[in-house]
Amino acid sequence: MTTRINLSACNKLQLDEFCNELDLPRYRADQLFQWIYLKNAGSFGEMTNLSKALRGEFEQRAELRGVRQTSVSRSKDGTTKCLFRLHDEKLVEAVLIPEFFDDGVADRLTVCVSSQVGCVFGCSFCATGRMGFFRNLTIGEITGQVLSMNAIAEAEYGKRITNIVYMGMVEPFHNYAPVVDSAEILCDPLGLNLSPRRITISTVGLTRQIRTYADEKRPWNLAISLHAADDEKRNQIMPINETLNLAALRQVLVHYHRTMKQPVTYEYLLFDQFNDSPDDARNLAAIARWIPSKINIIMYNSVEGVTLQRAREDRLNRFMSELTNLGARATVRRSRGDDIDAGCGQLAIRDQDSQGKTIAGRQKVQP
Ligand code: SF4
Fold it and tell me: Are residues 57 and 181 located together in one domain of the fold?
C-alpha cells in the first residue's frame, strides 16, 4: 500500500502540487487550503463543497493529522489554556491571552502557540526545558492550535484573535520551516488574513536561523529571549549561550537590522537577586543600543524545582528606573494565567510518558 500524504503538513505550494498531480483545477487547492487552514477540518468527510467521489479520492491518497483539543483551563484573569493531543498521542499547549478596554470589551486577543513538543535547550528556569525535546510539529499542528483558539475567541468575545506569538513550550527557530510556513498561512488572504505585524516569533538567539530569517526578508516581528545581559549569567541559566554567546547574537542582530530595518524585542525575565541589579540594568541597556529595540521585562512565575524566584517589587522599580535613565524603551509585562500554569516559562506537559532530549547536561548541539 502506498503511503498517504499528510496534507496538514503541506504548505500552499505543496497543496497546489498535490492537486496538479491529480489533474484537478487550481481552485481545488484553494478549497483544500481553506478547509485545512481556515475551517480546521479534521477529515475529508467535512469538506462538503467537494463531491463525494473527490473526497473518496483524497481519502485514498492523503490523510489529515491535525490536533485534537482535549482540555481547557481558565484563569481568573481571563487567560485560557488548551491542551491538544497529536496523532501520536503527544501533547502540546497553547494559551489565549485577552486584554480588555476599560469598559470590559476585548481589545487584543493574543494566542501563544507551541511549535514543538518540548524543547531541547534546557534553560534552567523553564518548565518546558525541563521536560526535554520530543519532536517538531507540522504546519497543521501549529495552525490547528491557532484555529482552535480562534474558535474560542469568537465564541467568548465575538471577535477573531488579533495577535500570535510563537513562544509557547518551544524554541520556534529549532523548527524553522514549519514555523515560517505556518505564519505565512495564517497571514494568507484565504486563511485568517492576519497582518504580519501582528505575529511575533521568539528565539533564544539561534544565529544561523536569524540570518536566514533576515535574508529571506520574513516580515514577522522578531523577539529574543535574553533573560541575562552578560555571558557569565546567561551561561548559568541558558546552556545555548555557551555555543552562541552575546557577541554572536550581536553580530547577527546587526545583520538583521541592516537587512530588515526592523527593531527587535528583548524578553527579559526578572529573577530575584540574579539579574535585577543596577549593573544588570546597565548591561541590558547597552544591549538595547545594539540596534533599535524595546525590552519586555517579564515578572517570573515560579516553577516547581527551580530555585530562581520572581524579583521583588522594590528591585523591579529600581531596575526600571535605571533602564529608563539610560534611555532604554522598557515595559513591564505581568505574566498572565499563573493560576493555571500558563505563564511565561510555566508551560509543560507533566504526563508525557518519558524524558525528552536536552542540552542542559552541557552537551553541545548544532543549533
Ligand atoms: S526558555 Fe525557550 S528555549 Fe529555553 S528551554 Fe524554555 S522553551 Fe526552550
Answer: no
